[in-house]
User: Fold these one by one.
Assistant:
Number 1:
Amino acid sequence: MLDNETGLTEETARAMRAVASTVTDAPPLRLAPRPGYRAARPAPRRRWQRWGVPLAAALTIIAVAVALVTARDASPRRVAPPASPALTVDGVPAYYAALVTAGSAQTAPEQIAIGETVTGKRIATVAPPAGTTFTGVTGAADDRTFVVDAQPGSLDAESEPFAPRTWYLLRISPGAADPAQLTRLPIPATAPGTDVAAVALSPDGTELAVGLQPNALNDPGGPVYLRVYSVASGAVLHSWSSVGGGVLADGQLFGGPKYAGPDPNLALAWIGQQGLAFGYRRGVPGKTIDGSQVSSPQVTLAQIRFIALSAKDDGDLVAESKMLASVVPAQARPTPAPLDCGVPALGGIVIAGHGLTPAGPTLLCGATGSYRYPGGTEGRLGCVSQPAFRLGLVEYEAGAKAPSRVLAQYASRCRSPQVLLQPLWSNSAGTVQLGMLGLGTGGSSEEPRLGVFDEGAFRPIPLPTTGAAGTADPEPLDYIAW
């Protein structure tokens, strides 16, 4: 054994001398330029320390030498090919996780697709535990850590309304032999009949915020809770509630009650590590006859509110929180009107800003400023002969009742379900966003496109393949996480 070790040492030394004799100069270490405010892109996930050039060259020589000596003795084995770096756009996360339908049947379970944001290329598909379906996904700021939840059966609303949720940690390692690792979390499962109205993972991935209403099926006017759990231990770190939060007259929280389906990840938003933003609205409920709604509810107050983690635990969620922004229902008007965000913003909260600074965080939302065109409309899509329906990506400063800044503006000739602007993600500086944009032109409509909003410009990127059989379906993009 000693002779073998001595031989290996001598052979390694000879290899190192041979390689070293070929090195006459070491290339300079090239560091990325320091980003300015415009390039408020996240710092690289893995930063090279500023090793000296001699040390770098020495490490290279040692690695090559050891490889030369040991390669001949290595037994054959399968090695995962090195992954090419994901194509990126300034400031945009490299990878996403999204719900993806496993088949075309209504009862097909939902899986989790992991893919490249800019190319839409799928790099992994994670199946739910046997007998369950995934119901939601939310991500941390590192672009590698996600929390997903699952329920028994499928998302078929008729068969499994308000089924219990169990919670899992999903970590991805693009380029690894096993790029996705799923681990059951100690967070308590929800009780049957509980409506999970919102989920949001903290930026550092250590805390999970959940908006829920126990016994929602039998008591829709019962209390609604916002709870913050420790991802590591499952303990409840913070909890607030609001009585009657499922009834519009008494105040609805988050995006409003839902019967079944995926758990929204945009109805809650973290403000740094310091607090959470959520939607709140009041109004007059619509009238119902024999269980059927015959008139639409009228919203009289719609706010994005935020609550600090330092707020009194077990207190009233609305009373302990403060208004972040006040939005109004978008309505058609006979003359051009300013862009403003409506009630849909309550279920699609996107926040820019690191935390509760003196200036406060800002809300980003898709706004409308549509008005009735005097010349009438053409066809069922409400199209006109010239642009008359405006969309915008706008910003509300903390405490604002109207937009403080318009970041992007677009015009359409058609007013239809496909005419929309919905931000889905923003960097902390508010300079770059990911979102959906759909515009109708002439007498036709255009399917929504996913893209990057950057200084008023919209650059489309491929839709992730989230539908059955690898098709691109924009609807599940409400349940995609970065």
Number 2:
Amino acid sequence: MDDDVLGPIDYLAVEYPDGLMTGEGFELILDLVERDIIRVLDLEFVAKSSDGTVQKVALGDVKHSGTVDASLWQGASSGLLDQADLDTLSEAIEPGSLAGILVYENVWATPLMKALDASTARLVGHDRIMVDDLVAALDESESA
């Protein structure tokens, strides 16, 4: 990447029980990339065996359903993910599962980041609110 200004960088970690990935996610990610909404920076997979042993799984070795062309994502590696990240992810999944971690840039926000960069304004925070937290807060406010 040779961009001077990048959009916010996020990640998603997804567990696939029984070690089988469905293909719908790949197609949706590809659509977001083609529409310049996101840019995939990293895509890594780990598997946790029934005895708890964890190993990195090459994209071409990921078992999936559907007609997915996984080769589109071959080489998606920025170096942001390291072994410690994959170890942390593996702690969160159940034995017998596969997990994928996707790191992506929010390209849609790049014009905003460039505008901030060109002005005296600066971004002083960036975080995510988990959906479960939002639902719980909304439920709590409705019951009050």
Number 3:
Amino acid sequence: MNKFKSPYLQPYKGTSTRHTCPACGTKNSFTYYLNGDTNEPIHLTVGRCERESKCGYHYTPKQYFIDNPDKVRKDDRTPPIHINRPIEPLKPIGTIPFSYVEKSASHQSDFVRFLFKIFDHDKRESPTIVHLCAMYAIGATRAKEVVFWQIDIEGKVRTGKVMKYNPITGHRIKHESGSINWVHNLLKKNGTLPCDFNLVQCFFGEHLLKMNPTNPVAIVESEKSAIIGAGVMPDLVWLAAGNVNGLSIDKCKVLKGRTVILFPDLKAFDKWSEKAKEIKTIVGCKISVSDLLEQVATEEERENGFDIADYLIRDMKEPAQIRQRFSNEIESLINQNEAMLYLIETFDLEAV
């Protein structure tokens, strides 16, 4: 008899021991933890990705039953579990000394030059850009590449993403070896970090969650979109998943109890909508998915990979130009913070 029936347990068909990772989407890379009574997966998210150096996803049975106590009978809190391969001791999460973040701090990247085209362009100095660079610890290399540091909720540096941007268009420029480099890889090559450095990525901007414990959270794909979103609507905590497959359960554990809005890029709405259901169930947060881009994008914009940053840049307007009549309560909120007006108008929000 199976003592641990779960409404989320789906039939396990076939004999393959490798499956598609729910975090990075790589096929034949994921190993399930199995229920000892039935030899079926405990849940299709409970397991380990073999691409540990790149993905790092690992959701254990212990953590699953802690997160979902209703899945375990009160008279038996220790379910019989075994897996279909030996478990190796977990490596500690690799971190990088914060001194590297401090040394890289600079406004001299081509990405920041692009930001000057958007914010405070009528002023000699830009308090908005200074604030954004400090808030997200934006760095730069000597080649004017931007460094987007991944700093976790405890303030520990996981890695940094190094990219080159066109200062005029704000689009990424690909290197001969690709469009992205990583600080941990560079430090491994020069011997500063060990070759077995255990990279486990976190959200870009994750450290802001502890600094803003009650603010709603907005999650986008790219670091560029998070920074521009934070400049336009600072009352939200803007995080970046890094890519369409970066919205993993492991990353989202820091969102427990938060109010979250997902802003997927075009063509990713369905994928992130499904992921949102999973996050709500496993993590325990109030989550919604914006379909704004799906509604307003033209065919040309779809072909060009339009994202929320492109929309915000295109439709940025002065508050006086879009002010409409609201209730006294809403007017009071707008008078306290004009970012509320832009939020209401841009996303067609209504008072309930």
